[in-house]
């Protein structure tokens, strides 16, 4: 008889330890585990999954190292136990299928699947509101482990109902990147107030689970396609983007968390960037690692001797008392050992192994046990606070802690050499951080909708197929059809489960592959090509810019989502896309050089092989068949062909309907209502009545600006303005005033032509200009509905029609029945029609007005808000300092509609304009995230004001004219302006240099640091060499250009401050430095009547996002963006107060808060006095001795020349602020 080998004996010893320390806590019927002292009989999903991983590791070790048949028998027993555990957990979850269905639709915390169950019955152990059940990481960990175990050859899923439930669990977690949860520690925010947060550890586990299920193939382990779980790659990429923006931070309230070790290494391996992995590891070991393990997070009071066990929550002020005495958890030494093993760092493995051995507890039978945590005793608290990591600690909590004990078993198997690290990762997830694949070229197929389009493209040497010329094996459907198909994937009548909710967007990566459905290969056009999305798609250049950015996004993201095959994008060109008419007159602001790209130009760029840095290949559809990624869809209850026919029944329609198509649609809708009775006329004959109506309409069209800011009302930034003559006003380079702009796209129809629409519309002639007369406002109230309808019947001019319908809307309401043509036609229906006509005419001012009145919400809005929020960029909407509303977490479309109505309920134009700006910001944060560094809150109201301000300066307009001009700007030009502001370039700069979205950004300005870099390029002209007397010297004609340049330079620093203030930019490290300042001040720091109290530093740590948001809350109460920037500069300098005043203990106030506003006013007075001595321009305003000279109009009584000073230098703002600090605190 052969004796056991040494390795076999050691392996049996590990198995015996597992039986005695872990399996002794197992229920023999349900196979679930529980050992928490405080909650006997409660089986946590997370703990049980880690135990399953330990049993699975033992199973693999025995299968690999079996000496005898009895070893194989042990391996099978371990395998069966592991499978039974996983099936029991699945059964616990399946009993809550009704909650899963509700959570998919509404994401309500009370609908979340429970995080723990009864060991004996598999039922619930507490109510929905009695525990923080919403834990995305727990469900994701289960799915990740299920995928790994299945890939190793063990079958857990047994039938198609379980497959459907697993598919629904994917739908449950796929929104995890935007769903705040309670996190690994089940308490949410570290104050234990039950506040949910976006947690990086949860998002990382979600990403890992989605990737693993995407890679595992079928769940039956037999190759059957019916057991395949479908994962949308866009959700994986969203998780990647969020992780990149968050790590090494865990959440708003936690600077970092030791739980992140589980996502940068075993078991998740979800971070592909090696530098980010190293940074996160270094942050955790530097801030949290101690002698006995890692603290969970900073100021964690759990089970410390100072914690009040009688209440679950903490008072905010008591968090600081937990600093330096947080419990240390040995479990994280296990994570660090696993991380070092997978990183092949033998030295670190040995160091952490020895450290772990020193903190293990020996049982009575001699087994090594891993305790839950180590506690500082009460008598050692003071000494530990004085000298951290010097006092002894004692074990606390459960011993053994099953989660930690399971990881200890795994590292023992690896350390002893029974397993290789690769054998615990059958899906090879560990390799993603080491093996970088080059970007994959994007395949593009362009199809013409009709023969006319094909001929026009051929005339430009672009040869493409028509939609009806492609191979019959292919079917082209819009992205919305894929949503309908996914609604059927995961359906289960037995479990009352539906598929993927229809209201969730279909991402670009999901539509960039072929889908095999039966014998057909289906291609879904990108969602941005679907019709009726919004008025933005009527702007040709927005459409082509969308092509560019989305192809670049695919190029950069495809390989990170682990899809075999290349991406394929199909673009269908319609006749309406080939029109370049209807561009707004804003291009006269020197923005037209690189902005008038057409569809033909974009297709030619694609055909060259590169588009905005992305490698693209353009061929016919059949040429890409063998290289394109393919996903197969199967439907158990219905035949695939039947499903495809039901989805394709809806007619495919693409962006930008032609006028003929619109007319046909209108005819179909309007013809059943009876004969037309509307009269045909050129324009209204009663010009006085129409003039009054037009004025009433115009009064409700202007953008509301902040009345507290005089400079914003005036919208004049240059100090010296030249009067505009009549010739300049009539110049073709100036756009005509709103309401007098000729229509170029609305066709004239002959009197015999049948057009079944509610209103006839024609182009406007010069003879129909509106006469401006002084009429009393009361006259409009005396006008009856019939009078307005008569005027409406007379006119065919779109501007007049909209003015009249607008007055009907204001006077009688949107639901008023006009009875036009003896039909039921409400004012809302008329507004819908004129809105459609304005879109076709690309009259953007009219489009925004009508869309705002109809409360139309852009389809892209909720997605854009989510893109910003998950990257930790909050949004405020509404007028600055008055009724701003903050959006801090992802919202549904209904919730966003209510928020927008509250913020802009009485301002139709701002209602639409604000949505557009949010959509553009959401697009840019995804493609150009570096533009948003050190920005936590984007104030849409201030951005609108700054855009109008820049227009006023460039066009020499008044406030009202600038607001009206901003409304006429096309969507693409508006996006271009926002990009220029974010990238730190004034509008003139990229007009001179040229601009493309794909170009490398020269510089991302972030506050005072960037000002210093730009000081060498732009010198402030306010020097002592320029005196007041020199301004009165008459200029020759050839010196006018130089004078204009002077005017431009004189406003540059004010404009820089205004732009940075509107964008809420701060210098790098600003919040941490301000935390230090507040911590030193006994009564805090006062900003604009808001006090940042010293107590904030007791609750929040130095780099905590919650502190940054508290600071933003105070700064955002400042309505004037340029004053906000001066406050930021002052706070930045306050952080260096000791060095500035050359004292170790500055004379700071001990009985009151430090007043930042007072410091600024003192600095301003020093500035004025100094410039008075130098006899500079300040003599004309604040330093004037003439009593007839009034103070300048600078915000908050600060001299406008002080705002316009460079930050650095002898005459810079920092110089005067430092002098004020020395005067006040030396």
List keywords for this structure.
single chain, 1226 residues, alpha/beta, Glycosyltransferase, 5-stranded mixed beta sheet, 4-stranded mixed beta sheet, 6% strand
What does this protein structure show overall?
By secondary structure, the protein is an alpha/beta fold. It has four domains: 426 residues, Glycosyltransferase (Alpha/alpha barrel); 207 residues, no CATH class; 149 residues, no CATH class; 159 residues, no CATH class. 44% of the residues lie in helices and 6% in strands. The strands form eight sheets. Strands 9, 10, 14, 15 and 16 form a five-stranded mixed sheet that branches. A four-stranded mixed sheet has the order 11-13-12-17. Strands 19-18-20 form a three-stranded mixed sheet. A hairpin with a 2-residue loop joins strand 12 and strand 13. About 14% of the residues have low confidence.
CATH architecture of the largest domain: Alpha/alpha barrel
Q: What is the gyration radius calculated from CA atoms?
A: 34 Å
What is the count of helical runs?
Answer: 46
Mean pLDDT: 80
CATH class placement of the largest domain: Mainly Alpha
Measured as a percent range, the helix fraction is 40-55%
Major pleated sheet = 5 strands, mixed
Query: How many domains make up the 3D coordinates?
Result: 4
The residue ranges in which pLDDT falls below 50 over 5 or more consecutive positions are 584-596, 651-681, 707-756, 763-778, 989-1048
Spatial separation of the terminal alpha carbons: 91 Å
GO molecular function, one term: calmodulin binding
Pfam family, one: Glyco_hydro_15
Organism: Caenorhabditis briggsae
Membrane topology: Lipid-anchor
